[in-house]
Amino acid sequence: MSRLLEVDGLDVHYGAVKAVDGLSFGVDRGRTLGLVGESGCGKSTTGYAILQLVRPSAGRVLFDGADLCRLDTASLRRLRRKLQIIFQDAHASLNPRLPVGDLVGEALDIHGLFPGAARAGRIRELLDLVGLAGHLIERYPHELSGGQAQRVAICRALAVEPELIVCDEPVSALDVSIQAQIVNLLQDLQQRLGLAYIFISHDLSVVRHMSDEVAVMYLGKIVELAGKERIYAAPAHPYTRSLLSAVPVPDPDLEAKRQRIILKGDLPDPAHPPSGCRFRTRCPIAIERCAAGDPPPQPLAAGHWAKCIRLSEGS
Amino acid sequence: MPLLSVRNLTTRFATDRGVVRAVSGVSFDLEEGEVLGLVGESGSGKSVTALSIMRLVPEPPGRVTADAIEFDGLDLMRLSEAEAREIRGARMAMVFQDPMRSLNPVLTIGRQTTEVLRRHQKLDGKAARRRAIELLEMVGIPMAERRLGAYPHQFSGGMRQRVMIAMALSCNPRLLIADEATTALDVTIQAQIIDLVKRLQRDRGTAVIWISHDLGVVAGLCDRVNVMYAGTVVESGPIRRLFHRPGHGYTVGLMGSTPRVDGAAAHRLTPIEGLPPNLIDPITLCPFLPRCRVAVAACHERPPAPRQFAAGHWAACFADLVR
User: Which residues pair with B26 in a beta bridge?
Assistant: First the structure.
């Protein structure tokens, strides 16, 4: 297995708002990194910054060894074929004036793939790959259900044969039965095509289902990163712990027994984040020293670290 | 006598393409202090059921009929619009998914919270203000007195939803209807709001109808659940029975589609294939039949009648899922 993407010290700053601040992580070929956190934590901005859809203020984004942040527009455009993105609102991401066939064909045309006679056959093949019936080829986006529109968006992303797809809340707007269809489709496609995913979501249940590794974000920073089994079984950072305890489980007996860690208050103003650890104002175990400086990552096990000074106390 | 009794509620909407049967023949009872969950996906009729009970369906294009909707000794179907307005907000109150759309953006939080109290409880300005501060503090808004002068956009989503709950509870309603009230909120804020609703329900004995697509939230909050599909209740039961021994193909399908944070789900989800039916076309057999994985021969012959499995637990399904 090899590193496909390596992000190192990534910053996206808008004046005083440090939307993404010093992120470092990597994704292997054929694997999924889940990026979780609540609204405003910077998880979507991170996805956009990787694709250079927003330009990072600092840091490196190495894709197959090339730093995307340093590439000129033409080289970036060539490389972007390898990195695709799908969004929460698939309908809004599709041109309302093009029928499904042309929406997929457009993706091929932009990169000069399957020109001429091969084009129509390739479009059918791609639609089939994402489970869209052939008769939908003539339909316009407004005639599609939410699930069908997301399949078209996935189909467009696949048309250019990417190696990495950033999935930004791809199932969050869908009903649970349709959500399961798309989750299974994404898993099947990964298996068949060896895709790597960055799966961005606020839904910790779906992220558990989809990911190999999980990074938890709070106010622009990753506070904890670990393999999936590890982070769900033994979360270390107090934010991860409260987040996991807050997710309801569809079992009344388990729910009756669960201990929730209810956080105080709301997210602080991102333009004036707390000094030191950004979580300390809502943290149930914060001490005075937490205000002193940005906590360094504490290694906890192979591939598992968390940024909390209280973890070194052996508690 | 139950606090709320709904019999054969049917709500239709006239559209350009035909008449949509949003709710078809829904019947249920709600006891005092009980928390009833309404679960189902978009278009299943959960919200329209609630709006019909609240008499908030615009007629036309809507048309609400029922054999009876009795609430707290009143026949809601016979109330005039003016009488319904007196009940709403006072004896029954509703909280919606998007508090920004329920609050008036150009009026202060103080003005909006005191308005309910002045109207229904006939409090004067000073007393209403005092009571509004109490209520906002009760739902966990810090420095409530100073915040009365703030406008809705100056509050976060979680705080706005808390204001809505404070307003809904301000007249001590017997019934609170919450329609996806925590769906738009972050999960840690959702936990705060659910904690609050549980506490208020316990302290005041308010009956609650909790509408949600989230089986986890329902499992933690409700005493009983009605599962809705295509405008009908397809299964109803006490919370533990329904989750452990579901009796309808759709309920089983919903559970199989739901990933779990505790990892207890199978490695692969079992989605419900296809799409929900169009509610304009007449539905003669089980509405879930085209998507059902457990259908039997009888499903193709006649519509299923409710089958009782245990006290209070029934499902309209021919498949023998509960043994």
Answer: B9
Dihedral class, residue B107 (left if φ above 0, else alpha if ψ from -120 to 50, else beta) = beta
Closest Cα in chain A to B43: A175
The distance between the two most distant Cα atoms of chain B, rounded to a whole number of Å, is 68
A267–B262 C-beta distance less than 8 A: no
Looking at the complex, does the CB of residue B183 fall below 8 Å from at least one CB of chain A? no
CB A250 within 8 A of CB B215: yes
Per DSSP, the residues of B111-145 read HHHHHHHHHHS---HHHHHHHHHHHHHHTT-TTHH
The distance from CA A314 to its chain's CA centroid, rounded to whole angstroms, is 32
**Torsion over CA of B96, B97, B98 and B104, rounded to 10 degrees?**
10
Is the C-alpha dihedral spanning B79, B82, B87, B93 positive or negative? Answer: positive
Q: Write down the residue that tokens 């930004």 correspond to.
A: A168
The two three-digit tokens of residue A198, written as one number: 């960055």
Identify which of A179, A248, A253 has the shortest CB distance to residue B217. Answer: A248
Convert the pLDDT of each residue in B256-314 to its tens digit.
999 999 886 667 898 898 888 989 988 899 999 999 999 999 999 999 999 999 999 99
- Listed in sequence order, the residues at least 6 apart from B108 whose beta carbon sits closer than 8 Å to its beta carbon are B148, B149, B150, B151
What digits encode the pLDDT tens for the residues B92-147? Answer: 999 888 877 888 999 999 999 998 889 888 888 899 999 999 888 888 787 888 88
Q: What are the structure tokens assigned to B54, written together?
A: 């609240």
* DSSP-derived pairing of the beta strands B175-179 and B207-212: parallel
- 127-156 in B: which are within 8 Å (CB) of A? 142, 156
Residues A256, A240: Cα–Cα separation, whole Å? 21
* Nearest-Cα residue of chain A relative to residue B223: A252
Residue of B nearest to A209 (CA): B259
Please give the structure tokens belonging to residue B242.
Answer: 């329904």
Cα dihedral across residues A97, A102, A108, A113: positive or negative: negative
Element (H, E) at B163: helix B157-169
Is residue B189 less than 8 Å (CB to CB) from chain A? Answer: yes
CB-side exposure of A43: number of CA atoms within 13 Å? Answer: 25
Task: Go through the domains of chain A in sequence order and give each one's CATH number.
Answer: 3-82+162-235 (3.40.50.300)
Of A145, A131, A134, A122, give the one whose Cα is nearest residue A186. A131
ipTM: 0.85
CB A294 within 8 A of CB A214: no
* DSSP code per residue over B270-290: -PPPS-PPPSSS---S-TTGG
Secondary structure class of A72 (helix, strand, coil): coil
Give dist(CA A91, CA A173) in Å, integer: 11
Sign, Cα dihedral of B71, B72, B73, B74: negative
**Residue B268, helix vs strand vs coil:** coil
β-bridge mates for residue B313, sequence order:
B310
CA distance B148 to B139: 14
Best probe of the A interface among B17, B154, B180, B188, by most A CBs < 10 A, is B188
